[in-house]
Amino acid sequence: MSYAIPNTRWTFGGNMQYRGDIFAEGLNWFIPDTPWRIEQDGVWLFGLMTKFQATEQTYVLLTVDNLFDEKYYSGISVPYHGQVYGDPRKATLSLRKSF
């Protein structure tokens, strides 16, 4: 969602995303008949953006993803080497020129 401020060159916006509960479970390979389970509760992720329209063909855009730097898994698999963390907080500044 974004909002362009009337009579200015500025646009501001934000987003939110919910990643639901995830889990993986199974039997331990190293210790027979020993079950394991890895789980994560759902997590909300938020982002912000601001855009400055420098000219009709040029703008500068700043985005911030995972605003509150939530630590979360983007994927879960077997213990010790199957968990994939989601991206940490990230800011991106870009300049775009149209021809």
Describe this structure in words.
The protein has 99 residues and is an all-beta fold. The chain has a domain at 19-47 and 71-89. 0% of the residues lie in helices and 58% in strands. The chain contains no helices and 9 strands. The chain has strands at residues 2-4, 10-19, 22-27, 35-40, 43-53, 58-65, 73-75, 84-85, 90-97. The protein has a 5-stranded antiparallel β-sheet with strand order 1-2-5-6-9, with no helix packed on it. A two-stranded antiparallel ribbon has the order 3-4. The protein is elongated and about 70 Å long.
Per-chain topology:
Layout (H helix, E strand, L loop, with lengths): L1 E3 L5 E10 L2 E6 L7 E6 L2 E11 L4 E8 L7 E3 L8 E2 L4 E8 L2
Antiparallel strand pairs: 1-2, 2-5, 3-4, 5-6, 6-9, 7-8
